[in-house]
Write a structure and sequence with these properties.
Rossmann fold; five-stranded parallel beta sheet
Length: 375
């Protein structure tokens, strides 16, 4: 062996001895159950895409404490029973934490399992109060609640003199959470919903709901359902002559709703709980757009659902960093609870030992006929 080869050989050996943890460290595996098939699939796909953008950035820089982050995702089709089965599988596989679950009925099926197993449940894509109260040590919410969103919607509608506000809602825990929010906000003004109509989850059978709501002659209709049923309702109501305004909460999936409606999206309002993703109006929006373009070039499709995945990923990674090099589940909980007024780039997350709802940010946007989102 000549001198040069010896230097290379012993340098390589020395590096492998100096950094065995980096070479052999077990990955941090996060488990996710979400809709990747069926009428709500765009929500799961977009959220996951945004989360992976950030996790890939972190892994390219060596991970967290030398450990890569892996996201193990299972499809539940937005059905609670399937979600519960997926959650059991993920817990049995000893995932470090559960992350980015999509929807209220599915998250409600999963959270008791996570709690019993003492597995952190972080950044679910839902604003339901039933997941926030009573306080749960293992659940961390990055987004504002449906009470926050529907309160802002009712505030805007009544400020311009609209008092006859109807509610079209999904006939499950998600829809009822949104209905409760609208009813609560109206009650403060001595008002009540002017017409109600329901649709079953994962269906688009909206005719009865359209008939019952339009019979009450509302000024505006608040929709609490997934994008396919909301789009079907909008088309049917307009065909029946309704000329008022439609409002949706963030879970509808802004991009998915706009794509589903096409030119008929014009004038539909959607409340948002994340920074505007289509331009660098906040540092985190610019970071998200740069990451997306670096990964997919001109094919990158920015939207609110994927920036929520990106923000959720940033939040859990910061919790992991604060948990230390030998992170445990309790360490992650402590790390997340230490995120007091954390500035993620113009979007703030504020947790504590007594508060696991990190944001109350709500913005209202309007869709245009060409599929754009205006603030």
């Amino acid at each position: 062996m000549n001198r040069r080869d010896a230097i290379v050989h012993f340098t390589a050996v020395g590096a492998s001895m100096a950094f065995p943890a980096l070479a052999q460290a077990r990955p941090i595996v996060l488990g996710q159950s979400a809709a990747f098939s069926g009428p709500a699939s765009a929500l799961g796909e977009q959220f996951k895409r945004g989360a992976l953008l950030y996790f890939d950035q972190v892994n390219a820089r060596g991970g967290v404490g030398g450990r890569r982050i892996e996201l193990q995702s299972l499809d539940d089709g937005y059905e609670p029973d399937r979600c519960a089965e997926n959650t059991k599988k993920l817990i049995d596989a000893d995932v470090f934490a559960l992350f980015g679950y999509i929807g209220t009925p599915t998250s409600l099926a999963a959270l008791p399992l996570a709690t019993a197993a003492r597995v952190p449940f972080v950044a679910p894509f839902t604003g339901a109060e039933a997941l926030r109260a009573p306080f749960n040590r293992h659940a961390f919410h990055v987004r504002a609640s449906y009470f926050d969103e529907t309160g802002e919607i009712v505030k805007q509608l009544t400020a311009v003199g609209m008092k006859r506000i109807a509610v079209f809602y999904q006939n499950d825990s998600y829809g009822k959470a949104g209905l409760d929010g609208v009813t609560r906000a109206l009650k403060r003004l001595d008002l009540e919903p002017a017409g109600l109509g329901t649709v079953e989850r994962n269906t688009v059978d909206v005719n009865a709901a359209v008939k019952s709501i339009l019979a009450e002659k509302p000024d505006a209709i608040v929709q609490i359902s997934a994008y396919k049923s909301c789009a079907a309702f909008i088309r049917a109501a307009r065909k029946a002559g309704f000329g008022g305004t439609f409002y949706n909460v963030s879970f509808v999936g802004t991009k998915a709703l706009a794509d589903e409606l096409g030119a008929e999206a014009r004038g539909v309002v959607v409340s948002q709980v994340m920074p505007y993703p289509h331009a660098s109006v906040t540092p985190v929006s610019g970071e998200y757009l740069a990451a997306g373009k670096a990964a997919a070039g001109d094919k990158f499709d920015a939207n609110y659902s994927s920036i929520e995945g990106y923000v959720g990923a940033k939040t859990i990674v910061e919790g992991l960093r604060r948990a230390g090099s030998n992170a445990t589940r309790d360490g992650l909980i402590a790390g997340l609870e230490s995120l007091r007024e954390l500035n993620l780039g113009g979007f703030f997350v504020d947790f504590s030992g007594q508060k696991h709802t990190g944001s109350k940010f709500v913005d209202l946007t309007i869709l245009t006929a060409d599929g754009k989102v205006r603030r």
